[in-house]
């Protein structure tokens, strides 16, 4: 299986969406009285943080040379 690089932006976006989903779910079950404005603003803030993380990761990956040499294929 091919290994994929770690992408912190996707992790942040997923956690933001999961937070909003759990918040609305708990509010629907009457287990937690969710403040509507905070849940409404949690997703855009999470996506903004995700964008910042993606930009930082992209610039960091383009600045640093790869550490592993390319694999040699037998001929």
Can you describe this structure?
The mean pLDDT is 86. The protein starts with 7 loop residues before the first helix and ends in a 12-residue tail after the last helix. Helix 1 runs antiparallel to helix 2. With 75 residues, the protein is mainly α. 65% of the residues lie in helices and 0% in strands. The chain contains 2 helices and no strands.
Question: How is this structure best summarized?
Answer:
This protein is mostly helical and 75 residues long. Helix content is 65%, strand content 0%.
Element layout with pairings:
Layout: H1 8-28, H2 36-63
Helix pairs in contact: 1-2
Keywords:
elongated; 75 residues; mainly alpha
- What low-confidence regions span 5 or more consecutive residues with pLDDT below 50? none
Outline the biggest β-sheet.
none
Radius of gyration: 19 Å
Q: What order do the SSEs take from the amino end to the carboxyl end, as H and E?
A: HH
Multimeric state: single chain
Structural class: mainly alpha
- Beta-strand share of residues: under 5%
End-to-end Cα distance, whole Å, is 23 Å
User: What is the approximate shape?
Assistant: elongated
Number of helices: 2
Overall number of strands: 0
DSSP helix fraction: 55-70%
